[in-house]
Amino acid sequence: MSNNLIELTAAEIKDLADVEPQQASKRFEIIANTMSDDQLVDVIEHMDIVTLTQINSHHDISCPSIMSELMSPEQIRDIVCQQPLYWEEQIKTNADELMHHTFEFLTYLIRIQGTEEKQAAILECIAEDPAGLFYLSIPFIELILAPSGEQDGNTIYESFDDEDDGETVGYSNWQADEEAHSLAMDDPRSLYALIKQLTPDVASSIKNLLRNESSGWEQIIGKFVNELVLQAKEKNEVADEYAEVDDMFTFLD
């Protein structure tokens, strides 16, 4: 397939994504039936990060896209760091919504991959970026930092940690083993267990980042949101192709 056709295909997907991301995703799926994986990877490489983020943000583990499987760890990292610009106000201002949203998106992007090697490469790549590590930490802030047995209404938060180092609140001999504890995929502990299994260093980085925060977990989430949006905006400023985001989304002040 010629480079010209690859570029035209990428441009078609981008134009659709600017208007209706879900239609762009459906169009990519149709095109996938006529191209090899290598050709599809070429099409993806001709798309900007705004287009990739628009499309992938409309998928989850129950409705996967072949695009998510074909993207490189670097592209997935960039999507994770870009997505805060897409957060609706109800997500940015509600701690529970934010933890749930980031957990679901990370679960999707990681678990959709076909091999553990690819999953590990994605986790390591995301964690290498300061904004990416902030994002990786959000789903686990309450679990790791909320005092054991803390109760909020009818909800009891069972905080945990995976090693007794004498410092972390909530150590309860919890082991990072999904099967042994029958952890469901919709349980944040399940994702943390996967991270611990595949990339112990990334799990340690998440825990250390949270441990170094002296505020309560809700205040930490607010700080992380501001930091993520700020870093995403700064990254956009260095690429003219992302300027259109300012017209499409409302940023967190």
What's the helix and strand layout?
Blueprint (H helix, E strand, L loop, with lengths): L2 H17 L1 H12 L4 H9 L3 H8 L9 H5 L2 H10 L6 H4 L2 H17 L4 H13 L1 H8 L3 H5 L4 E3 L2 E3 L30 H11 L1 H12 L5 H21 L7 H4 L5
Antiparallel strand pairs: 1-2
Helix pairs in contact: 1-2, 1-3, 2-4, 4-6, 6-9, 9-10, 10-13, 10-14, 12-13
Structural account:
The structure is a single chain. This protein has helices at 3-19, 21-32, 37-45, 49-56, 66-70, 73-82, 89-92, 95-111, 116-128, 130-137, 141-145, 188-198, 200-211, 217-237, 245-248, and strands spanning 150-152, 155-157. The chain is globular and about 55 Å long. It has 15 helices and two strands.
Mean residue pLDDT? 79
Give helix and strand order, one letter per element, not per position: HHHHHHHHHHHEEHHHH
Low confidence ranges:
148-162, 164-181, 240-253
- DSSP helical segment count: 15
Counting DSSP E segments of at least 2 residues, the number of strands comes to 2
Distance between the termini: 45 Å
